[in-house]
Amino acid sequence: MKVFEKTGRFSAFSLSIILSACIFSIELGIMYFFHASPKISPALEAFLDSTILVITLYPLLYLFGIAPLLRENQIRKKLEQRLRTSEERYKSLAETSPDCIKLFDKDGKLVYMNSGGLKEHRFRNIEEAKQCDLLKGILAEDRAKFTEAFQKAKEGRSTTIEIRHTREGSVREACLETLVPVSDANGEFAYVFGVSRDISHLKELERTREALIQMLIHDLGNPLSVVSGGLEYLNEKVRGQGPEDTDQILDLCVKGTREITAMISELLDIGKLEEGKMFLKHEKIQVSGLIEDVFRDFSVMAESRKITLRSRLAPPASQISGDVSLIKRVFSNLIGNAFKFAPEGSLIEIAAVPQVKNKSVFFSVRDEGPGIPSEYHKKIFEKFIQVQDPGIKKSSGKGLGLTFCKMAVEAHGGEIWVESGAGKGSVFYFELPVDPPVSKKE
Q1: What is the span of the domain harbouring residue 38?
Q2: Does 328 share its domain with 271?
Q3: Using CA atoms, how far apart are residues 247 and 242, in angstroms rounded to an integer?
Q4: Is 440 within the bounds of a domain?
């Protein structure tokens, strides 16, 4: 390309030299005519003088005036052609996409929607789409979520959310909506680019998978109970009567069946919480009494592991309403995790702090373990997720405890999160309202 550009410049320069030579020859001929014909009229003399002036200035005009303009015009045309080609290419990609691709201006008005989007929303053309309020096409419960995501995009942050659309009373179960800010040539916010993908079929597959898992888990319960009962019976009857390793093997078998039974129970409870089918037994709970009970349950383990277990009690009058057995299980899972990773001689602290302004209570479990990398702060609350880090020893758990904690806390109208960093220990917080909304009755 560079060779071509250099060749083009040299060709233009050579052409100007040739033209200059020709013009110089014409000037010599005119000057000779002057000398050969001394008797010429003043008008002809003036014409010849003007001709010589024009012919002399022409190469300069060409080199410094017309030629650059011609080259600039050619470059502009090439750039415009490339721009048109690029626009057609990207428009073709957008138009052939099955996803709904759209562009909004800074006021939230629709500027563009591809054919996939028009088909998805059942619009006949883009003009009909522009006249429609797309926010009304979102299920009422999800409109605030979309508005918040759009505002984040206007502030320069890309956001992906899951929302549900409705059209003529028919609910499209789930769409994955991504909103991205677009800047103009000056770097100023100009548009919001959106892509919406229908994931209803994925939700259906997920529901089928969950139903299959729940069925398998439920069906495993009865035979496992038979195995567990038989092993415990043998453990009582033949202990100390067989070979030396018999008792050890039976203990391992009993322990294994108990762990599987607990995991099945936890999976069933998570499934019930996810579907909103677990009935919470709401009662008034004395916060200080709750912390004392949990502290007592783990004090022997702390002593055997040479770990200091400390508690910070809430004022005696502090109370919350909830299912005491579920909340105790949340504490047990969090403290159990702390013991798994806390080194010998370290500190584990459990605390409860009333929040008068928010009408809630902050509970926390602090340890001095290896900590949790920031990228896992949300993932660890998902099913079967465990931290994969060379600096953290692998847990014997199955990645269900924190999932149960999250579901149980949210069932009480609360929230759970972790604050941690690699090598800095961890603090798990969960906040429970004093009077949670009762959606399920006993």
Answers
A1: 2-94
A2: no
A3: 8
A4: no
Of 183, 182, 184, residue with least CA distance to 194: 182
Both 257 and 358 in one domain: the answer is: no
Q: What is the pLDDT along the chain (442 residues), one digit of tens a residue?
A: 444 344 444 455 555 556 556 655 665 565 555 555 555 566 655 665 666 666 566 555 555 555 566 567 777 777 777 777 766 776 777 788 888 889 999 888 998 998 888 887 888 888 988 888 888 888 888 888 999 999 999 988 999 998 887 765 445 668 889 999 998 878 888 899 999 888 888 877 777 777 776 676 667 766 777 787 888 877 777 777 777 777 788 888 887 887 777 777 777 777 777 777 677 888 999 998 999 999 988 998 898 889 999 998 878 778 899 989 889 989 989 999 899 888 888 999 999 998 888 889 999 999 998 888 888 898 899 887 877 765 666 555 667 889 889 989 998 999 999 999 877 899 999 999 988 765 544 4
145 and 251 belong to one structural domain: no
Q: 51 with 119, same domain?
A: no
In terms of Cα–Cα distance, which of 307, 322, 306 is closest to 363? Answer: 322
Residues 246 and 328 occupy one common structural domain = no
**How far is Cα 217 from Cα 229, in angstroms, rounded to an integer?**
18
Q: Are 294 and 331 in contact (CB under 8 A)?
A: yes
Of the residues 159, 181, 198, the one at which a domain ends: 198
Amino acid at 163: I
Helix ranges, 279-323 (H): 287-304
Backbone angles phi, psi at 285, to 5 degrees: -120, 125
- Rounded CA-CA distance 111/190 in Å is 11
Q: What is the DSSP string of 382-403?
A: STT-----TTSPPPSS-S-HHH
Whether the model pTM is above 0.70: no
Contact 184, 165 (CB under 8 A): no
Give the total number of structural domains in the chain.
Answer: 4
- Angle separating helix axes 200-238 and 246-275, nearest 10 degrees: 150
**Pair 71, 212 in one domain:** no
My answer on whether 175 and 209 are in the same domain is no
Whether 117 contacts 102, CB under 8 Å:
yes
Half-sphere exposure of 426 (CA within 13 A, CB side): 25
Q: Name the amino acid, one letter, at 150.
A: F
